[in-house]
Amino acid sequence: MEIPIHQKYMLSIAEASAYFGFGIKKMRRFAESHPEIAIRYGETWKIVREQMEEFIKNMSVNENEERVI
């Protein structure tokens, strides 16, 4: 049984990269630096989809400031 990505609770780095539109290397670096959003399970990282969505929604950009994940 295959669950659609938008219904999964946790995403692999590759799934999160495709879903959120970031590169795989960028998503892995993000996971390593945000333990409140990503969980390391052995050698693999899992991104908690809903928390990542909230993180992106809460990002604010000033006219003079560029936000970098």
Would you write up a description of this structure?
The model has no long low-confidence stretch (mean pLDDT 89). The protein is α+β, with helices and mostly antiparallel strands and 69 residues long. The protein starts with 9 loop residues before the first strand and ends in an 11-residue tail after the last helix. A hairpin with a 2-residue loop joins strand 2 and strand 3. The protein has a three-stranded antiparallel β-sheet. The longest helix is centred in the middle third of the chain and has 10 residues. The chain is built from three helices and three strands.
User: How much helical structure, as a percent, in the residues?
Assistant: 40-55%
Overall mean confidence score, pLDDT = 89
For the termini, the CA-CA separation is 33 Å
* Helix/strand order, N-terminal first: EHHEEH
Cα gyration radius (Å): 13 Å
Strand content: 15-25%
Major β-sheet profile: 3 strands, antiparallel
Number of helices: 3
- Which residue ranges are poorly predicted, with pLDDT under 50 across at least 5 consecutive positions? none
Major sheet: order of its strands?
Answer: 1-3-2
Summarize the SSE layout with pairings:
Layout: E1 10-12, H1 13-20, H2 24-33, E2 38-41, E3 44-48, H3 49-58
Antiparallel strand pairs: 1-3, 2-3
Helix pairs in contact: 1-2
